[in-house]
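hey m, so remember when u said the tokens were messed up on ur end? i reran from scratch. heres the input so u can diff it against urs
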Amino acid sequence: MFSALEGSLGGKRIALFGSYGWGDGQWMRDWCTRCDDAGANLLDENGLTVNEAPDAEGEEACKELGRKLAAW
């Protein structure tokens, strides 16, 4: 799905977030690079990652990202 959108990201404001249960989050770094290369305006150049299911701190980080994106 992402590959189909990648060519239309130029100039778009986006935030990236996701959870994972393997590795060290390299997939997010790669995803951010792909978006940057496509000309997207990333709210946070590192994206937001949560290992496994979000705990209370992770949930708050997600909400804060949403607030920042809405105000951006």
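this time it looks ok to me. The chain has three helices and four strands. if urs says something different then somethings off w ur setup not the seq
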